[in-house]
Amino acid sequence: MKQVYFDNNATTMMPQAVIEALVKYSNCGNLSSHHNSSMEAEKIVNSFKHKLENSLGMKVIFTSCASESNATVFNNVCNYFKNPHVIISAVEHKSISQCAAELEKNNKLSLSIVPVNKKCQVNVDDVIRLINENTRLVSIMGANNETGSINDIDEIFKTIKSLHPNIITHSDIVQLYGKGFNLSKYADFYSISFHKLYGPTGIGLLAYNPSMFGNTLPFPLIYGTQNDGNRGGTYNLNAICATAVAHYINFTDRNEKNLRVLALKNYFISKLFSIYPCINYSEGTLTEYSKYFVVLTPKQNSLYNTILFSTIIRVNNENIVCNKKLIDALEANNIAVSSGSACNTGGTEGSVLVAMEIPDYIKKGILRISFSDYTTKAEIDYFIKIFKQLLD
Predict the structure, then answer these.
(1) Average of pLDDT values for 109-133?
(2) Overall fold of domain 16-251
(3) How far apart are CA 233 and CA 227, in angstroms?
């Protein structure tokens, strides 16, 4: 059997049409030179940019990735304001959490971190309580890449704007964008990475509301004339053109795809039930069993494609399961998955699991499954077959 790839929250595989576009536009010149060879690609880039701006209702800047987009937001806020107060959630991507920590260390900002609940979601009241007179930026991710939990950024940002209209709102929507969920009109910045929706790596987006800083950001990370002076550097032409194809493929029949992927998610969880008892983490634990699963992805308000769960096999009151060994064994059977954190045989503990106050015995057995639009029931059945053998 070909590889069963259940790690789509890390990156998605490019469809053949995207690969063909990536190759086709690799040798058509520099967009800034306006040669005949690059004119077709230039039309695609301009059309795609216009489509993105219309759909998002914002200006857009092509970047190398969402991490660069995140850094651009923080760079502008910290240079435009003097020692601004910034609020982020406890489960942000490292490109935000580490960036913010380093800027605070260098006295560029003062930082507050809003906690998450057992469902890995931010409560709007917790955000509001942290706001002070010097708060300039609130950055809350749209959906968590590990748990699949979705934050109600529309409610959070709407509440912030109603009380403090001048506070800048930003969301890293890498996992949320392109999956059919509504965004918030109260966001000032969005960070997007297209390799999460069947595009190539090395191409991202920063969408922004020009009413905050104007059409041109005051402090670009890279200076130059490209992207209206907001982000210099030669356009990644073939990646943008390939992304335009991926974007079209991703959004075609999006609702039908979501229903199909959600059905696969429910099917997967039902197959887990056929092996051991299963409970959602927000509902408690199954202490009366020696073998069971704990699902950390909430039943409601979560990504259709994501399941974070832990395998518990108790011996002498200890969980003997190690997720690293499970991942290696699955890999040996041509199945690709990932973990929420490393087991205690080595590695570092994930900040998401710490923020959720996950007990150590649950951390040890955690695996993350993330489907694509192309995942099949047969692949799930194969996973369950091998997984059951490994547990036996």
Answers:
(1) 97
(2) Aspartate Aminotransferase; domain 2 (3.40.640)
(3) 9
